[in-house]
TrEMBL record:
Protein name (database record): Oxidoreductase, short chain dehydrogenase/reductase family protein
Organism name: Anaerostipes caccae (strain DSM 14662 / CCUG 47493 / JCM 13470 / NCIMB 13811 / L1-92)
Top-rank taxon: Bacteria
Family membership: Belongs to the short-chain dehydrogenases/reductases (SDR) family.
One cellular component (GO) term of this entry: membrane
């Protein structure tokens, strides 16, 4: 009887006290490493990405290693409307999200006119629209609660124009500018909005996009990888 009570109490406490983080693109790179850190700190993990095999591998490895709840959502977030669908799917059937990490994104390289319109459109939706829509939906909920955190992953590409990575750099400038503005608004709501900017390395831009790049990573003008945060309090 006592054991049963203990089990029920544990279950109820978990339901009440477990905090959930939604990480877009949590199946590899920065997103995956962040998922591990959150899992290590007792968060329930919600991951959205487009490849179901990678999602199930990550689900198994995180739940085995950290014994925490891991839910995955297969969604191509480079399509209009995908962010809203995802958010409704999660909040409709799940506990509330207390931390949002907008991490999914990639960069196309090449001369602007040679990057396909659809390729560019998909990247811009993923890097900007999805991030802005998830932020908006999340903040609406969290302002009512009076707590919550958003981490929008930008890039040092946000700080200057990027010839041969024109729309990628511009999309990350959007992320930075949008996040700073929302962060300012959020001050009055006691909800922290965090911005992470990260330098890219060769591997990153060579994963997708045109092969004929003349970007700074080839000319050797890029600095070493780093993490920076604009110091707005
Ligand atoms: N790595 C760097 O040096 C660097 C530098 C500057 C900025 N960043 C920024 O940091 C973030 C993460 O970069 P990373 O290098 O860690 O990326 P990564 O290893 O390539 O991982 C990207 C993640 O996003 C997901 N993703 C990609 N396209 C998606 C789509 N259409 N819908 C849903 N999920 C999608 C991927 O999963 P699926 O493929 O399964 O969908 C994966 O989980 C990005 O926003 C990137 O712009 C990275």
């Amino acid at each position: 009887m006592t054991d049963m009570l203990l089990l029920i109490t544990m279950h109820v406490s978990k339901e009440i006290f477990m905090e959930y983080v939604l990480i877009t693109g949590g199946t590899s790179g920065i997103g995956y490493e962040l998922a591990r850190v959150f899992a290590q700190n007792g968060f329930g993990i919600l991951i959205a990405a487009s490849n179901s095999e990678k999602l199930s591998m990550v689900k198994n490895s995180l739940s085995e290693e950290f014994h925490t709840e891991v839910e995955t959502y297969k969604k191509d977030l480079s399509k209009f409307g995908a962010a809203e669908e995802l958010y409704k799917e999660i909040t409709g059937g799940h506990s509330e999200i207390s931390v949002l990490v907008n991490n999914a994104g990639y960069g196309l390289k090449g001369e602007t006119q040679n990057i396909g319109i659809e390729e560019d459109r998909n990247m811009l939706i993923l890097n900007m629209m999805t991030l802005a829509e998830l932020t908006k939906l999340f903040l609406k909920d969290r302002y009512q609660k009076g707590s919550g955190k958003v981490l929008n992953v930008s890039s040092t590409g946000a700080f200057q124009p990027g010839p041969y990575t024109s729309s990628f750099f511009a999309s990350k400038a959007f992320v930075l500018s949008y996040s700073r503005a929302v962060r300012y608004e959020a001050k009055t709501w006691n909800t922290g909005l965090h911005i992470m900017s990260r330098c890219y390395k060769d591997r990153f831009l060579s994963k997708r996009g045109s092969q004929n790049s003349k970007g700074c990573h080839e000319s050797g003008e890029c600095g070493p990888a780093c993490i920076s945060q604009p110091d707005e309090k």
